[in-house]
Amino acid sequence: MTKLKDKWGLILGGSSGIGLASAKKLALEGMNLIVIHRDRRGSMVEINAHFSDIRAHGVELVSFNQDALSEDARRDLVTKISDVLKTSKLTLMLHSIALGNLKPAAPPLGSPDSACLGELDLQQTIYNMGSSLLFWVQDLHRANLLADDTRILGLTSEGNRVTWDGYAAISAAKATLESLVRAIAKEFAPYGIRCNVLQAGLTDTKAFRLIPGCDELAKKALSKNPFGRLTTPEDVAAVVYLMTLKEAAWINGALLRVDGGEAISG
After folding, report:
1. Is the pTM higher than 0.70?
2. What Cα–Cα distance (Å) separates residue 5 from each residue in 8, 32, 239, 248?
3. pLDDT tens-digit profile of 94-134?
4. What CATH number was assigned to the domain covering residues 8-257?
5. How many other CB atoms are there within 10 angstroms of residue 123's CB atom?
């Protein structure tokens, strides 16, 4: 029996990686989905094939190819989400947006200062991957689209405390995200909302492949992971599903590692 039948979830960034894997797992368990993504036309054949596979589980999937990070688009999307839900409400919101600047904090030797991270680069990344979570929660709550027991989930990484070249802006965004998760967990608790953040182990996704030195990072993760492999999007998706269950209702404001023990292994 599907445990999430007739429930609705919202995934921000659900066309690839952890977001897409979560959509597939949640659909398998019966959850209807609204997926917001931002992709070029050339990618849509593959993405639509994934969405068709999800619908084959007998669930509803409504997708919007719009910029979830634009304030105007967010307000438009909230209206569209309300139209889709009709009298239903969201029981899950997963923030899986991976759009950050990978410039170094210091310019490489012999390079101009313009080659390093600038103020606008940093501000935009913190908003994209951090503070946008709060504004989505606020707008959905204001529109009365969150159920009494909605689960809000963000995604972070070990880069929140470990320094990687070119990761300064994203690391700052993850720290912001984690702080806001705690604030949401406390201040929205009177409305029944739970908010947590999942720290995925190193996961080989399109976003990871953009990080400078990603191959070396992967080798290090493999060498220290107790299970001798990298985290997969499906590993994280399984925990996203677990966090939707009634048995997870008392988990609030937590950072949960989904990495097979990678972070504790030196």
Report:
1. yes
2. 9, 8, 18, 17
3. 999 999 999 999 988 877 777 899 999 999 999 999 999 99
4. 3.40.50.720
5. 14
